[in-house]
Amino acid sequence: MQHSCLNRLLRSLDPDDFDLLRPHLELAILSLGDVLIKADTPITRVAFVERGIVSLVSIAADGQQVEVGLVGCEGMVGVPIRLDAERTPDGARVQAIGLAQVMPLSALTDALRLSRRLHNQLLKYEHVLGVQATATALANGRYTLEPPTCRPGSRMDFNLGRGAKSWKSVEKFAGG
User: Which one, of 171, 166, 176, lies nearest residue 46 by Cα?
Assistant: First the structure.
């Protein structure tokens, strides 16, 4: 299964580390607008995105939201748990439909206790995600983009794969 994963982080793992995660991974469809992490609620699951884009959003006390990063097929949604945080003031929302390998937080935590190598691999990913967040914050503060225009009738379509469950049918990150 590891060689067929579209998620680059999962594919890059040592086979022994991947074997710790494999029994807990479940393929889920990510629909536009799905909330994978709701701000200030317990994180119960993590997702390794295979296709699609998930937006990481910082939310101010007044409800204003700013995108601070993106996760695609290179990474994982649920990084705060690696930092021993059960909650985050930020959110994660699907911006482009796709697929993800989803697993319970408890299974990832158990695997991290068993493998220092897996722990270190995810720390490297967290560093890259942090660098992306700072670059995104710089771009958000420095540049302005005009909204894109779409031609009538244009659409984005691709095969989501067999055996994938709708994100709605998999326990939500937000705990319900």
Answer: 171
